[in-house]
Amino acid sequence: MRKPVTPSPFAKGTTNRFGRSSLGHGFSASNSNARVSPPYQPAKAPAAAGQQNPANMGLNSERSRGMMVERLRNQGIQDPRVLNALMAVPRHLFVDQGLASRAYEDAALPIGYGQTISQPWVVARMISAVCQNRAPAKVLEIGAGCGYQAAVLAQLVNEVHTIERVRGLYELARTHLRTLKLINRIRLSFGDGMKGLPDLAPFDAIVVAAAGIEIPQALLEQLSPGGRLIAPEGAAAQRLVLVERVGAASWHREELESVRFVPLRAGTQP
Ligand code: SAH
Fold it and tell me: pLDDT (tens digit, 9 = 90+) per residue, 19-36?
């Protein structure tokens, strides 16, 4: 279903101007960045990384990643660019060592500060949606977290910008991206992503990794013509919403699957 997005009265006619817990604290099913209504469930859970000794992850991770990608394919992710990107990024390096053995399960995992690394399916779904029938050259991500999704995006997009509002996570993402030698290809900012990056706009695609009650108008204004934004929207009940900019002041929106993300919050957490 597609219907036009009504810009908020506040932003109408305006131009582009426009808050450490221990690891795992606050992690629960209610902030798991997990899909709520899966379109497909494998008959049997694949025996994946969960059974491996974390010490062997480096050696076995490629195989586990291959299984993860195969699972994503079975769950309807078809874009080879996206599947290749997920195959290329060592997700186990983005989580605490104690969780590395679970890194290739289709699950959100705690990254500290009450936040989570998004489950692989959600990452694949969001990137596939904004890249469908197009090859975005410049992308903005809101909510860098540990940096995983930005690293995946960087496999298929030339210019990746990402913003994180929690200082400790911003630093964690920077460490991960440095280790993987991706820091020069991904511009990581500390700040409130609800404002976007007006000075660097427009973006061909915007991927929001945390759920707000509504999509910030500032982000819609920073989309290129024909560009796409995907974001979880809602509070207790959330849905992925795909928005396409179809004119200077018109956007079309489409509601996708039910999901559960951590909240999009204003301001920063030092
Ligand atoms: N992209 C991450 C997902 C991290 S979870 C991944 O690859 O797994 C979502 C992140 O959004 C959290 O780190 C949270 O701190 C951050 N966040 C929430 N509101 C934000 C805002 N207004 N600006 C920037 N980041 C925000």
Answer: 222 233 333 333 346 656
